Amino acid sequence: MLKLKFDKNGLIPAIIQDAKTKEILMLAYMNAESFKRTLKTKKTWFYSRSRKKFWMKGEESGNVQKVKKIYVDCDADTILVLVEPKGAACHNGYNSCFYRTEKGKIILKKVFDPKKVYRK
Amino acid sequence: MLKLKFDKNGLIPAIIQDAKTKEILMLAYMNAESFKRTLKTKKTWFYSRSRKKFWMKGEESGNVQKVKKIYVDCDADTILVLVEPKGAACHNGYNSCFYRTEKGKIILKKVFDPKKVYRK
After folding, report:
1. How confident is the model at residue A107 (pLDDT cuts 50, 70, 90)?
2. All structural domains of chain B
3. Could you say which of A1, A26, A107 has the minimum Cβ distance to residue B103?
4. Residues of A in contact with B30 (CB under 8 A)
5. How far is CA B53 from CA A30, B48, B117, in A?
6. What is the rounded average pLDDT of the residues A74-88?
7. Is ipTM > 0.90 here?
8. pLDDT under 70 in chain B at which residues?
9. DSSP line for A18-86
10. Contacts of B78 in chain A (CB under 8 A)
């Protein structure tokens, strides 16, 4: 197993890519424990910097991500996770979190209504 | 233009993806100035945390990345840049920095010899 370089907060960015379509779905952060859980459960687990807690993608929405492959970059300070997503990745209702251009133009269609999926 | 959320060090992670093949090439960090230069020159500019300086991808190796599209995620704290790469992205001689699995298995072929491309 490669030794990952976590930052001074104990986190490493994880790029989540759809294994089939190659679309980038999201970027989130893992700590050592969420990386372990990701390996063990084959579902994506992250660490929320704002909520200061672990979370499994889809624990509330049901939109889990099944892990297919994991790659590590040259500096071992970023990981790339190829997943088979069930449902959409973005809590705003889009398939990918990258649904806007830098000018703010929305380039994806909403696939679910966040109000109906998230309780809070 | 969307207002990007730079972190407390003034940086934002930028995922670099091949516009054609959809392969993830690298992840690097931009500050406000390197983002501006990226927009202006249509080449990727980053900020090196270790060397504490701007750099343009390819300034030494010649392996520049022509910017095709820029997307911003839901929280505006990550950007995704689709590029047309000239040559390989990784300073270790691979097309992508993600050339290893989490177990350390190399899954890409080396396309150049770093010793011949980088002076230092």
Report:
1. very high
2. 12-114 (3.10.20.810)
3. A1
4. none
5. 27, 5, 20
6. 97
7. yes
8. 120
9. ETTT--EEEEEEE-HHHHHHHHHHSB-EEEETTTTEEEETTTTTS--EEEEEEEE-TTSS-EEEEEEES
10. 27, 97-98
